[in-house]
Amino acid sequence: MSDQAGAELRISIDRLLDRLAALAEIGAIEGTAGAARLAFSEADRQGRDLVTGWMVDLGLDVAIDAIGNVIGVWRQGAEPAGRHLAPVLCGSHIDTVATGGRYDGNLGVLAGLEIVETLARAGVTTARPLAVGFFSNEEGARFAPDMLGSLVYAGGLALEEALAITGIDGAIVGDELDRIGYRGPAPCPGPAPHAFVELHIEQGPVLEEAGIGIGVVEGVQGISWTEVTIGGQSNHAGTTPMRLRHDAGYAAARLAVFVRELASELGPPMVGTVGSLRLHPDLVNVVAASALVTVDLRHTDDGVLAVAEKRLGAFLDELAEAEGVRITTRPLARFAPVTFSPAVVDLVESTARELGCTTLRLPSGAGHDAQMLARLCSTAMIFTPSRGGISHNPAEHTDSAELEAGANVLLQVLLRLAG
Ligand code: HGY
Ligand code: MN
Ligand code: MN
Question: Cα dist. 115→77, 81, 89, 274, 329 in Å?
């Protein structure tokens, strides 16, 4: 097929929407468009089975690696002389947070499958193979850190260390992988693709507020996750004078206020979140004995992120002193900001414009597998708008026309990268 004809190819939005809907059925959150498929859960297994089945149906050579990453290479779609070449990989993740929407991660994987189907139906072959993958535990909500599968794939964490990680529910990654049958034979770290392009919803308000259809993502901001354990003294809520308290609940609340005020003081793009705060014994008439609190800090500048981490440490020392509580911390994730390949970023931008899309360059506020694949190969991301900037929420939504535009930009970028 001529390049011209390839340039005219477009995906079928109906097929893409059907696959998104079918996948969202698994772990569906009653009464919403969203789904809950925490990493390595039964729902995740079912989601993996469904998507891997689609890969097989499309004629992809499916490899499952030792941390459960699944990559399907479409060798039949390459000219015979190029079938041995490193593929151009697209994809993302299909695990979700507990309040997941149907597009976060899933869009990048299912758009990749739709592109393979579109090319196959059109009889289009490429100089080197295309591949579609999903990486394990991108969310990091059950097992920290996030982007675990792609981190191990890229050689950023030893496989044995990853398999030994204990989750928030006490489960162990390796056991869960065995239980769902996704500890595969393919080696970790994995082979470097020729390039990696991830289509993803923005999950923030920038594109919608600017009235822009395609985000040309230049990189991902740095991430710092810390688990803070506060040991106080449980006591009677009625009899214990305020002056005698060592209240882990109060200390945890102070920490949450500090994180918010630190982010405001350092100013945008600094963000700070206390997303999990668990008290023990968590009873109405007991001064909390202990608290388990998570702190998520992010910034595009690694130096400012390091300042924020230092400020957090100093605050915790003061808090321990003032309240007479014992405070220990455990790092859960720490990834420096990543800059994507300028050549691929430029290609995303020029391709989107050729397709008549409006574009805006921006950093990613959320973490993505692309920030790990960037360690291995030329990498970039394409964003589509998120309605109201909402994500990690079942109400997450992107209009069909925007999904279609994003998938068509990905199609054309992949064709150009694969020759
Ligand atoms: O936390 C993140 O940014 C991603 O959703 N894992
Ligand atoms: Mn995601
Ligand atoms: Mn997410």
Answer: 11, 22, 12, 39, 45
Residues 278 and 135 in one domain: no
Do 233 and 287 form a contact (C-beta atoms < 8 A)?
Answer: yes
In the predicted model, what is the mean pLDDT of residues 204-213? Answer: 98
| Residues linked to residue 339 through DSSP beta bridges, in sequence order | 219
Number of domains forming the structure of the chain: 2
The Cα 398–Cα 190 span in angstroms is 32
pLDDT tens digits, residue range 94-142? Answer: 999 999 999 999 999 999 999 999 999 999 999 999 999 999 999 999 9
User: Can you tell me the distance from the alpha carbon of 203 to that of 40, in angstroms, rounded to the nearest whole number?
Assistant: 23
* Span from the CA of 116 to the centroid of ligand 1 (angstroms): 27
369 and 326, same structural domain? no
How far does residue 367's CA lie from ligand 2's centre (Å)?
7
Together in a domain, 331 and 342: no
225 CA distance to ligand 2 centroid (A)? 17
Ligand nearest to the CA of 140: 1
Question: What number does the ligand 1 atom closest to the CA of 366 have?
Answer: 3
Ligand nearest to the CA of 370: 2
| Ligand of minimum distance to the alpha carbon of 109 | 2
Q: Give pLDDT tens digits for 259-315.
A: 999 999 999 999 999 999 999 999 999 999 999 999 999 999 999 999 999 999 999
Residues 196, 130 share a domain: yes
If you take atom 2 of ligand 1, which residue's CA is the nearest one?
367
Nearest ligand 1 atom to alpha carbon 298: 3
CB atoms within 10 A of CB 323: 18
Q: How far apart are CA 224 and CA 201, in angstroms?
A: 22
| Same domain assignment for residues 248 and 308 | yes
**Domain, as residue range, for 23:** 3-221+337-417
Residues 156 and 300 in one domain: no
Q: Is residue 382 located within the same domain as residue 241? A: no
For 90, the enclosing helix (H) or strand (E) is: strand 88-92
Which tokens is 67 given? 């941390």
And the tokens for 291? 């608290």
Q: Is 366 in the pocket of ligand 1 (CB under 6 A)?
A: yes
Last residue within a domain, chosen from 335, 368, 385? 335
Which numbered atom of ligand 1 lies nearest the CA of 138? 6
